[in-house]
Design brief:
The complex is a heterodimer of chains A (276) and B (336).
Chain A lengths: L1 H4 L5 H30 L5 H8 L1 H34 L5 H8 L1 H4 L2 H12 L7 H6 L8 H27 L2 H8 L4 H30 L2 H7 L9 H10 L3 H29 L4
Helix pairs in contact in A: 2-14, 3-14, 4-9, 4-11, 4-13, 7-9, 7-12, 9-11, 9-12, 10-11, 11-14, 13-14
Chain B lengths: L2 E10 L2 E11 L4 E5 L6 H9 L6 E6 L2 E2 L10 E4 L11 H11 L4 H14 L15 H14 L4 E5 L7 H18 L2 E6 L2 H7 L2 E6 L2 E6 L1 H6 L4 H6 L4 E3 L2 E3 L4 E4 L8 E11 L2 E8 L15 E6 H7 L6 E6 L5 E3 L7
Parallel strand pairs in B: 3-8, 3-9, 6-7, 7-8
Antiparallel strand pairs in B: 1-2, 1-4, 4-5, 9-10, 11-12, 12-18, 13-17, 14-15, 14-17, 15-16
Helix pairs in contact in B: 2-3, 2-4, 3-4
The chains are: A mainly alpha (276), B alpha+beta (336).
C-alpha cells in the first residue's frame, strides 16, 4: 500500500539520476578494473602463467594469504570479544575505547606502519631490542606484517557485530542464565547464533581488507624480495620494473579475491533477512 | 517461607531503587508485586532472580542463602515482559533448553517438553519458530521454558504487559488455573491493580522503593493502609475530606437529609453500563470552584440507577457515603 501511494520524482529526473550514478560507478570502478582484466589477458593466459611461474610471485601470494588468514583469525577472536565488552559491560573509559577502535579507519596505514616500527624496531624500538635479543624478530618479518594487518582491519568485525549485539539486547542471555547456563554456554548457544551472520560478514570484509593492505605492511616488512613481499608490493615493484604483464596478473588475482568476497557477502546478506 | 528478603537496599547512582525492603513470600502461593512504574518492583524481582545485585541485605530461597549466587545456580524460572524467546530455536528447543543444559537424557527431555507443551496448549506449534507465534503464544512458551527446569520459584516480570487487553485477560485466567495445577511458588510484577486483585493470593504494594502494604486482595481493598494504596487499587474521589471510591457514594434526589452533601451535576459521562457523574458541592469546602477542581466529587452509578433517579446535567443531588464504604483520610499533598 505504502509503495503505491508514495510520491515519486518525475520521469526525466529519475532517468537523469540513474545516468549520473551509472556513469559515476562506471568511470571510477568498472572501467579501470575492466582494463586490468583486459591487459592481464591481452596475450591469453601467458601473462598469468609466466607470473605464477616466478618463485618470487608465488612466495608473495603465499605470504599474503598466510598474513591475511592469521590477521583475520586474530581479529575474529578479539573483535567478538571487544564487541561483547563494549555492548554488555559498563566500565570507565568505554567511550574512549570505542573511539580508539575507529582510529585504524581514519589514520593512514603508513602512519600505522611507522608507529609499529617505532615500538618494535630491533635497533631503537621500545620493545624491539629486548625481543630481538630474545631471538624474536618483529619488524622486517612476518609478525610485524601480521600486526600491521590486524591493526588496519581491526574495526571491521567490531563495527559489524556491535549493532547486532545492541539490537538483540541481553534478555535472551539473561533468560539463558536463569535456565542454568553458564557464561560460556550462553555465549555458544544463544549469543553466537544470533550474531553469526554479522561475524561472517565482518570476517569477509576483514579478509578483503587484509589481502589488499599495502602501506602499513610495506613499512614494516622491509620489502625483501622472496621473503617479506606481499602481493600488493609485487604489483608495485613489477609495475615500476617494467614487467607490466606480471603486475597486471597479480593485480587481477587481488581484484578477483575481492570480487569473490563481495559475491560471498551478497549470498550471505539475504539469508540474514529473517534474523535481523 | 519460600523466599526471605531482609533489609535490601539498592541504588542506581543517586536514584534509590529499593530502601530497607524486608519481605517473606510463602511457599506455593501466587504473590503480586504491585506498584507504579519506576517504583522498584521489577528491581526487587530481578534481585530475587540474581539478575541484579543488592547493595545491602540478603535473599534466602528455600532456606538457601542466595544473595551472592549467580542466576544459573538459583534454580528460579524467570519470565520476561518481552518474552526473551530464543529466536533461532524452535518452540520445542526453547522449552528443552534448560533440560539440555542440565544434561538430562534425550528421552527424558523429549517427554518433559511434550508434557509442558501440552500444559501450555502449544503442542501443535512445537516445530515453529518464535517469530511465527502470536504474543500470547510466545509468552506461554516462555512460561513452559521456565517451568521445564522445575524451578523452586517462578518469577514473572510484567508477563502480560506487552499483550493486548483481551489476550491479557485470557492469560491472566490461564495463569491462575495453571498455578492451581502446578503449585510452584510464583511472584509476578504488575502495575495493573485489576490483574493483581484477580490473580494473586497475596499482594505487596511497592512505591518509591518502599513497601506500602502487604496483604490479601480483600484486605488491601477493604482496609488500605494509606491513601496511596487506596488510590492505586482503583479510582478514588474526595467527599467531605475523605478519600473514597466513586461507587461507594450514594446519590439521592429526595432532598436535604442530615449528613448529606448537596451538589450540582456538572458533567455526566456514560461508559457502557455505568454512568460517571461529576458533582460540584454547593455548600462546604468545594463550593463555587471551577470545573475539574479540587472540590468536585466523582460518583459512579449503574445506568439503570441513574435513569431511575432521573439525573441529568444541572440536577441537584445529595451525596453521602454508602454504609460499609471504605474511606481513608486524605493526606494534603501526598495524594497522587
Amino acid at each position: 500500500m505504502a509503495s503505491a501511494t508514495r510520491v515519486r520524482e518525475p520521469k526525466p529526473v529519475r532517468w537523469a539520476l540513474r545516468a549520473i550514478v551509472t556513469a559515476y560507478v562506471f568511470l571510477l570502478v568498472l572501467w579501470p578494473v575492466s582494463l586490468v582484466v583486459k591487459y592481464t589477458f591481452a596475450d591469453g593466459m601467458t601473462a598469468m602463467t609466466t607470473a605464477l611461474a616466478e618463485p618470487d610471485v608465488r612466495q608473495a601470494l603465499r605470504l599474503t594469504v598466510m598474513v591475511a588468514l592469521i590477521a583475520v583469525a586474530v581479529n575474529l577472536v578479539f573483535g567478538v570479544g571487544i564487541s561483547l565488552l563494549l555492548v554488555r559491560y559498563e566500565f570507565p573509559g568505554k567511550r574512549v575505547l570505542s573511539a580508539l577502535i575507529d582510529v585504524p579507519l581514519s589514520v593512514s596505514p603508513i602512519v600505522v606502519g611507522l608507529a609499529l616500527v617505532l615500538v618494535y624496531s630491533p635497533r631503537n624500538g621500545l620493545f624491539g631490542k629486548g625481543l630481538s635479543e630474545a631471538g624474536i624478530q618483529v619488524i622486517f618479518a612476518s609478525p610485524g606484517m601480521v600486526m600491521a594487518t590486524v591493526f588496519v582491519a581491526l574495526p571491521l568485525v567490531i563495527r559489524e557485530v556491535v549493532p547486532v549485539l545492541q539490537e538483540i539486547g541481553d534478555e535472551q542471555e539473561q533468560a539463558s542464565q536463569s535456565l542454568g547456563a553458564n557464561a560460556f554456554q550462553t555465549f555458544r548457544r544463544i549469543t553466537l547464533p544470533s550474531i553469526k551472520w554479522a561475524v561472517v560478514y565482518g570476517v569477509v570484509l576483514a579478509l578483503a581488507r587484509s589481502l589488499g593492505e599495502y602501506g602499513a605492511v610495506k613499512v614494516v616488512s622491509g620489502n625483501v624480495t622472496g621473503q617479506s613481499r606481499t602481493a600488493t608490493m609485487i604489483v608495485e615493484s613489477k609495475y615500476q620494473g617494467f614487467e607490466q604483464p606480471a603486475a597486471y596478473a597479480v593485480a587481477f588475482l587481488l581484484a578477483m579475491a575481492s570480487v569473490v568476497c563481495i559475491v560471498v557477502v551478497g549470498f550471505l546478506r539475504p539469508s540474514t533477512g529473517d534474523h535481523s | 517461607m519460600s523466599i526471605e528478603i531482609k533489609d535490601i537496599n539498592k541504588k542506581f547512582g543517586d536514584f534509590v531503587a529499593l530502601e530497607d525492603i524486608s519481605l517473606n513470600i510463602p511457599t506455593g502461593q501466587l504473590t503480586a508485586l504491585l506498584g507504579p512504574s519506576g517504583g522498584g518492583k521489577s528491581t526487587l524481582l530481578r534481585i530475587i532472580a540474581g539478575l541484579e545485585s543488592t547493595d545491602e541485605g540478603t535473599v534466602h530461597i528455600e532456606g538457601v542463602e542466595a544473595t551472592h549466587l549467580p542466576p544459573q545456580k538459583r534454580n528460579v524460572g524467570f519470565v520476561f515482559q518481552h518474552y526473551a524467546a530464543f529466536k533461532h530455536m524452535s518452540v520445542a528447543k526453547n522449552v528443552a533448553y534448560g533440560l539440555e543444559i542440565r544434561k538430562r537424557s534425550k528421552a527424558d527431555t523429549k517427554k518433559r517438553v511434550a508434557e509442558l507443551l501440552e500444559l501450555v496448549h502449544l503442542s501443535q506449534f512445537a516445530h515453529r519458530l518464535p517469530s511465527q507465534l502470536s504474543g500470547g503464544q510466545r509468552q506461554r512458551m516462555a512460561l513452559a521454558r521456565a517451568l521445564a527446569v522445575e524451578p523452586t520459584v517462578l518469577l514473572l516480570d510484567e508477563p502480560f504487559g506487552a499483550l493486548d487487553a483481551k489476550v491479557r485477560k485470557e492469560l491472566r485466567d490461564w495463569l491462575r488455573r495453571l498455578h492451581d495445577e502446578v503449585h510452584v511458588t510464583t511472584v509476578f510484577v504488575t502495575h495493573d491493580q485489576e490483574e493483581a486483585l484477580e490473580v494473586a493470593d497475596e499482594i505487596v504494594v511497592i512505591n518509591n522503593g518502599r513497601i506500602e502494604q502487604i496483604g490479601s486482595p480483600d484486605e488491601l481493598y477493604d482496609a488500605p493502609a494509606n491513601d496511596f494504596v487506596m488510590s492505586f487499587l482503583g479510582p478514588v474521589t474526595t467527599l467531605e475530606g475523605l478519600l473514597m471510591r466513586p461507587h461507594d457514594i450514594d446519590v439521592s434526589t429526595a432532598g436535604e437529609v442530615a449528613g448529606t452533601t448537596p451538589g450540582e451535576v456538572v458533567r455526566m459521562l456514560r461508559v457502557g453500563f455505568e454512568v460517571r457523574l461529576t458533582v460540584r458541592p454547593t455548600t462546604g469546602r468545594g463550593a463555587g470552584s471551577s470545573p475539574g477542581q479540587e472540590g468536585d466529587v466523582t460518583v459512579v452509578l449503574t445506568r439503570s440507577h441513574a435513569r431511575e433517579l432521573g439525573i441529568d446535567v444541572g440536577s441537584t443531588v445529595w451525596l453521602s457515603a454508602n454504609r460499609g464504604a471504605t474511606s481513608v483520610a486524605r493526606r494534603a499533598i501526598a495524594a497522587v
